[in-house]
Structures are given as C-alpha cells and as structure tokens.
Design a protein that fits this description.
The chain is of the alpha/beta class. It is built from 13 helices and 7 strands. The chain has 3 domains: about 120 residues, Conserved hypothetical protein from pyrococcus furiosus pfu- 392566-001, ParB domain (Alpha-Beta Complex), CATH 3.90.1530.10; about 45 residues, no CATH class; about 50 residues, no CATH class. Strands 1-5-3-4-2 form a 5-stranded mixed sheet, with helices on both faces.
C-alpha cells in the first residue's frame, strides 16, 4: 500500500464539514492563494492540543522530508492575542523548530475553541504513534465534550465500535497501571486481562508481578483470575478481604526478597506465584547441563 502523501491533513480524516462546505483542514483553492510565510516564532501551539507526547522517530522522518522538499502543506492557524495559534500542523511546526527554520508557510482561518479541540482530537486519534492511554483519553473527551456515542466516534476515526469501547475501558485501571501502559511497559493485552480484577489496588499488585515475571497475556489472565478469586473469598470474620492484604503489600515485598535470594543461589531466573491459598516456584534452565547443575543444587541429581 502506498504511503500517505506528506502533509495530507485532516481533510482525509474528518468527514464533518465546516460552514463553508470545506473539510476542516483541507486547503481550498481560494485559501491556497492566501498562503504566506511568517516568522516561525510568531506561530504558537494551541493550549487545546490534547496530545501530551510526541514520538521523536516519526518527527525525525518528517524533518528529513522537510529538508529535501520543504513544507508541502501550510500550517493552519488562527489569530489569537497578536500571535498565530496552530489549528493543524503541530508536527510540522515542531520539526521546523528543530531544523531552525526562520519562516513557515501558513493559512489563517477563523475557528472556535470547540472546532480546534475537535479537529485536534480526531487528527491525533488517527496517528499510529499515539500511546493507548492517550487514545483512550481522546475517545472519552469526544464522548463527554462533544456528546458523541461510541458508534459515531468509531465512524469518525475509522475504527470499530468494539475497539473504541475496549480502549475507553483502559481508563478503569489504577492510575499507576495506566502509566505502565502509556510507557509500553505493559501491553494492551496484559492491561485488558488485569481489568478483570475489580479492585484497583489489586490491579497494581498484579501488574507488578506481570512485569517482574515477564508473564504472557495468557499467564496474566490466569493470574488475574487468582487475584479476583481471592478478593471474592470472605476473610475469616466474614468481611471482604482488603486488596492490600490479598496478597498484602508486605507479603509481596517478602516474596520479592525470596526470589532474589533464590536467584542468587541458583544463578538463574526465579519466579514465585503467591496467594494466601497456594503458590508456585519456577526455576528456568537452559539445556541439559544447566538442568543437571540445578538438580545438584537441589540435592536431586540422582532422582
């Protein structure tokens, strides 16, 4: 499949029409006559920009293209307080800054705050480098601030309703778990498995085990089921067990310490699965010789 042309903007992404009948970020023939170069420092980012991080690698690719071909599509801006505030084209603006360009081509357009926010949200949601939590937050903002239903959001961003719904559910995770997903330390598949744990503190404890033990998604599903079963089991006095005690944070720290001691003893990866009712210790070995070495340390080499 051929790559999208550089600079192809929101016109290909947003089907909603503005009052002039022109898609929000498409440059009309009349507007193309009004392109002008302005000092780069006169252009400022919009405070309505919902994007919180910009991945460097795609930005480097854009910089190289600008070096060779210049900025093909002008930035769309609106006049605000003596400056030109970006409506569309923040990546081009950032790339221009890094390249040290003195001027950039712009087209001025009138747009309300609501128009700017909606355009920015939908443009960002179309980008492949958006992290899952930014994507989820974008969908929720469209739903809350623009009263869009999941079906409408899905149609506007070109995704299925199920994918939109699943993304939005990620915001039900503990805030620290959300950060792990945003940092790509926890995959969306792992996060979906952890969502089956209803207690947020327990979600955090489970996430910690998933990362430390490098569990697969399937193994994470089993771990989550163990956590949820423990939460559903009443304590001895008939009350619901608090998440912090199932397993307790102190117990979890103790298990980590045991793992470290065993790792030093056996010189291999050790993982302990612990719950109040049962547990499992796993030792990894790498080939027959390594297995024999571990068996000798266990005193089981003659078994």
């Amino acid at each position: 499949m051929a790559k999208q042309a550089l600079g192809k903007g929101l016109g290909a992404l947003i089907k909603k029409q503005t009052g002039s009948g022109v898609p929000a970020s498409t440059v009309s023939p009349d507007e193309s006559k009004r392109v002008r170069d302005v000092p780069l420092d006169q252009v400022v980012p919009s405070p309505l920009q919902p994007r919180t991080t910009f991945i460097e690698s795609p930005l480097d690719d854009l910089m190289e293209s600008i070096r060779q071909h210049g900025i093909i599509q002008p930035l769309i801006v609106r006049p605000v307080d003596g400056k030109l505030e970006l409506i569309a084209g923040e990546r081009r603006w950032r790339a221009s800054q890094k390249l040290g360009l003195a001027t950039v081509p712009v087209i001025e357009r009138e747009a309300s705050d609501r128009d700017v926010l909606e355009m920015a949200l939908i443009e960002n949601l179309q980008r492949e480098d958006l992290n899952p939590m930014e994507e989820a937050a974008g969908y929720v903002r469209l739903a809350r601030e623009f009263t869009m239903k999941q079906e409408e959001i899905a149609a506007r961003v070109g995704k299925s309703r199920a994918s939109v719904a699943n993304a939005m559910r990620l915001l039900d995770l503990h805030s620290d778990v959300q950060l792990l997903v945003a940092q790509a330390r926890l995959s969306v598949g792992h996060a979906k498995a952890i969502l089956s744990i209803k207690d947020r503190d327990a979600q955090l404890l489970a996430s910690d085990q998933v990362i430390r033990r490098q569990l697969t998604v399937r193994a994470t599903e089993k771990l989550a089921q163990t956590f949820q079963n423990d939460l559903a089991t009443p304590a001895a006095d008939g009350t619901k067990k608090p998440a912090a005690a199932t397993p307790a944070r102190e117990t979890d720290a103790h298990i980590r310490a045991i793992e470290n001691r065993l790792r030093d003893l056996f010189a291999t990866h050790v993982a302990i699965t612990h719950s109040p009712k049962k547990g499992r210790i796993e030792l990894e070995y790498y080939g027959n010789d390594d297995l024999q070495r571990i068996l000798e340390l266990l005193g089981a080499d003659e078994v």
